[in-house]
């Protein structure tokens, strides 16, 4: 349950801020000077905040679009990411966002035009190349869609730039606004899935697998490009059977030939994030499993990871053409 | 552990009476009242006094797994009716400009308000803002020991542009007492959150017994703490586990045994 709204005084009159305030009119509103006053202090308890987060309405003043980390991407010439929101409405125990910020509040940036200007600038700089812009790294791209109107602004923007591609990464089923738009072949909505068992144990507040498959199918039927992301695959005693069932459930509804891309990666966190999440959730079995430190990343021991990835890849290849597969390479 | 911080005895009285807190005769730096997992400290007037009292009492309860705080007191306002109650959602220190954001839970039934903490009494009231003399000192100090989610400041309007309760101490107690059920409700919500955080901590007794079993380096202690916190949160019997570990010959063997147990416990998520 959202507890309150913080809003930067300077952007109170921004049309998107006004729209948000109208939508959130039942919540107490606290005026602030800069989002950092609320979002950055150390004396915050992420775990408690996650129960009743606040929404912070703010403007982002710098670093709107950033180069994607090494190894991130789907084979484009240039890869960038941007976040119109920081933090996610869902509470997935494996997610690095738990250790990313001091705060669990949902920070919404309303100055889309500044993001848009930078996207245009970057695309122009690499005019002869395919430039990918990834959304959904620091948030779920679509989860707050009815409030943010994200797709309404960014999809037409990307459609107007010939060498720009956009990935929306989501676990949400909020596709209504996309269904109202003309499909754009350079916009890929990538749905993340974990098997049913991991979903029930680790993905708190996330729509059911069946509802997400349904959302995917509706987007495909409407002509949109859709991707599948099995990242992270989490180890548990029955992960093999569970992964097979997940694939059967997906591909009994989705035509694999119509998928834009599929990627797969095992559970991993940087050492710093891992330290933070184990402090926040010391009782969480996921963090008590047999894990190892490898080049600053905590993940399964190499042999277990190899076994998991090989198994999942083999199962996946029974359903999808190899050319649509993009493994998550993080070992460097 | 829930700690109430009040500037005046008359502000604390409704809480002391409601929870039947007993005066502590062991302490003389500040007047202190204690009860079951609860204490109430009388700081004296002003932000420095509030900060000092909060820091002093936090030191007294350093062994508490987690502390929740409520600053309860009176405030001035321009137009609010006398006796109006608020849970502060913004505290501004008038001298430094520093702002703090206590975070009343979503289930809080008290209306929120901003409060300006002044160094000296003033009647230069502004709309939509309360005035007090302690809240910023309280926040400054308590946020070093607890998070904003466990720190609240509840203010009852005692003075406005038309009326002044001033030094009428029985009247101040009465204004606060009127809301004691609501205040208790607010405190109960905070206690639930605090218990969740406290329950995650290792009991000092079991930790002491565990670390006395062998010589652990600092790195080993860090690992040991993670493993022990996990296993204790899985409802394992600590005494039985400690007995089993007694057969381990070294610190490395103890950690190895606990890791093995963790891996087995966590296989099924």
Walk me through this protein's architecture:
By secondary structure, chain A is an alpha/beta fold. Chain A has a single domain (61-86, 104-327), classed as pyruvate-formate lyase- activating enzyme (Alpha-Beta Horseshoe), CATH 3.80.30.30. Chain A is built from 14 helices and 18 strands. In chain A, the strands form four sheets. An eight-stranded mixed β-sheet of chain A has the order 4-5-9-10-11-13-14-18. A five-stranded mixed β-sheet of chain A has the order 2-1-3-8-6. In chain A, strands 15-17-16 form a three-stranded antiparallel β-sheet. In chain A, helix 5 (112-125) runs parallel beside helix 7 and helix 11 (239-251) runs parallel beside helix 14. The longest helix of chain A is centred in the last third of the chain and has 16 residues, at 302-317. Chain A is globular, with a radius of gyration of 20 Å. In chain B, a hairpin with a 2-residue loop joins strand 3 (31-35) and strand 4 (38-42). Chain B has nine helices and ten strands. Chain B has a five-stranded mixed beta barrel with strand order 5-9-8-6-10. Chain B folds into two domains: 2-199, Rossmann fold; 204-266, no CATH class. Chain A binds chain B through residues 1-4, 6, 28, 30, 32-33, 37-38, 41, 43-45, 47-49, 51-52, 54, 197-198, 201-202, 234, 236-237, 278, 282-290, and chain B through 89-90, 99, 101, 103-107, 111-112, 114, 143-144, 146-151, 193, 196-197, 200, 226-227, 229-230, 233-234, 259, 262-263, 265-269.
Task: Give descriptors for this structure.
heterodimer, A: 332 residues, alpha/beta, pyruvate-formate lyase- activating enzyme, five-stranded mixed β-sheet, 18 strands, globular, B: 269 residues, Rossmann fold, 2 domains, five-stranded mixed β-barrel, 9 helices, 40% helix, 21% strand
Helix-strand blueprint:
The complex is a heterodimer of chains A (332) and B (269).
Chain A: E1 5-8, H1 15-23, E2 29-32, H2 36-39, H3 46-51, E3 55-58, E4 65-67, E5 78-82, E6 85-86, E7 91-92, H4 97-100, E8 106-109, H5 112-125, E9 131-135, H6 145-148, H7 150-159, E10 164-170, H8 176-179, E11 187-192, H9 196-202, E12 203-204, H10 209-221, E13 225-233, H11 239-251, E14 259-266, E15 268-270, H12 271-280, H13 285-288, E16 292-294, E17 297-299, H14 302-317, E18 325-327
Parallel strand pairs in A: 1-2, 1-3, 3-8, 5-9, 9-10, 10-11, 11-13, 13-14, 14-18
Antiparallel strand pairs in A: 4-5, 6-8, 7-12, 15-17, 16-17
Helix pairs in contact in A: 5-7, 11-14
Chain B: E1 2-6, H1 9-18, E2 22-23, E3 31-35, E4 38-42, H2 47-60, E5 68-77, E6 85-93, E7 99-100, E8 112-117, E9 129-132, H3 135-142, E10 151-159, H4 169-177, H5 180-199, H6 204-211, H7 218-232, H8 238-245, H9 251-266
Parallel strand pairs in B: 1-4, 1-5, 5-10, 6-8, 8-9
Antiparallel strand pairs in B: 2-3, 3-4, 5-9, 6-7, 6-10
Helix pairs in contact in B: 1-4, 2-3, 7-9
């Amino acid at each position: 349950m959202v507890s309150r709204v913080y809003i930067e005084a300077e952007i109170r009159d921004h049309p998107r801020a006004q729209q948000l305030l109208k939508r959130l009119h039942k919540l107490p509103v606290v005026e602030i000077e800069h989002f950092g006053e609320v979002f950055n202090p150390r004396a915050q308890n992420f775990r408690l905040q996650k129960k009743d987060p606040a929404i912070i309405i703010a403007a982002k003043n710098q670093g709107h679009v950033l180069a994607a980390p090494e190894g991130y991407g789907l084979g484009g010439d240039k890869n960038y990411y941007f976040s119109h929101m920081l933090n996610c409405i869902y509470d997935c125990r494996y997610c690095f966002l738990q250790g990313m910020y001091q705060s669990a509040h949902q920070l919404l940036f309303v100055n889309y035009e500044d993001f848009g200007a930078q996207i245009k600038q970057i695309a122009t700089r690499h005019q002869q190349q395919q430039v990918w812009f990834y959304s959904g790294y620091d948030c779920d791209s679509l989860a707050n869609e009815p409030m943010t109107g994200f797709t309404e602004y960014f999809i037409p923007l990307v459609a107007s730039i010939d060498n720009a591609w956009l990935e929306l990464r989501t676990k949400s089923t909020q596709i209504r606004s996309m269904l109202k738009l003309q499909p754009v072949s350079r916009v890929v909505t990538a749905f993340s899935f974990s098997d049913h068992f991991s979903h029930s144990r680790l993905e708190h507040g996330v729509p059911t697998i069946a509802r997400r498959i349904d959302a995917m199918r509706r987007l495909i039927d409407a002509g949109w490009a859709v991707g599948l992301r099995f990242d992270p695959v989490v180890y548990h005693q029955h992960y093999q059977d569970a992964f097979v069932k997940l694939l059967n459930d997906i591909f009994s509804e989705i035509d694999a030939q119509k998928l834009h891309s599929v990627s797969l990666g095992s559970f991993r966190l940087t050492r710093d994030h891992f330290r933070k999440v184990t402090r926040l959730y010391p009782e969480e079995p996921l963090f008590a499993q047999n894990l190892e430190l490898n080049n600053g990343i905590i993940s399964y021991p190499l042999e277990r990871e190899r076994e998991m990835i090989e198994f999942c890849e083999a199962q996946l290849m029974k359903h999808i053409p190899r050319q649509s597969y993009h493994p998550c390479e993080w070992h460097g | 552990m829930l700690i109430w911080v009040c500037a005046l005895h008359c502000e604390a009285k409704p809480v002391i009476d409601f929870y039947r807190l007993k005066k502590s005769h062991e302490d003389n730096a500040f007047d202190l009242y204690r009860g079951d997992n609860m204490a109430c400290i009388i700081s004296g007037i002003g932000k420095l006094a509030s900060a000092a009292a909060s820091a002093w009492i936090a030191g007294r309860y350093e062994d508490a797994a987690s502390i929740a705080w409520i600053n309860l007191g009176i405030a001035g306002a321009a137009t609010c009716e006398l006796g109006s109650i608020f849970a502060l959602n913004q505290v501004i220190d008038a001298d430094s400009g520093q702002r703090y954001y206590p975070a009343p839970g979503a289930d809080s039934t008290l209306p929120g308000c901003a409060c300006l903490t002044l160094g000296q009494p003033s009647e230069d009231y502004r709309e939509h803002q309360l005035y007090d003399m302690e809240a910023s000192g309280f926040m400054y100090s308590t946020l070093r020991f607890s998070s904003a989610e466990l720190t609240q400041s509840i203010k009852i309007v005692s003075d406005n542009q038309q009326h002044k309760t001033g030094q009428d101490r029985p009247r101040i107690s009465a204004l606060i007492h009127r809301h004691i059920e609501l205040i208790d409700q607010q405190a109960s919500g905070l206690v639930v959150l605090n218990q969740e955080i406290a329950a995650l901590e290792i009991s000092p007794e079991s930790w002491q017994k565990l670390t006395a079993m062998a010589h652990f380096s600092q790195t080993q202690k860090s690992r040991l703490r993670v493993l022990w916190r996990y296993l204790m949160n899985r409802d394992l019997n600590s005494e039985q586990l400690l007995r089993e570990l007694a057969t381990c010959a070294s610190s490395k063997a103890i950690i190895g045994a606990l890791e093995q147990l963790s891996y087995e416990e966590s296989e099924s998520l």
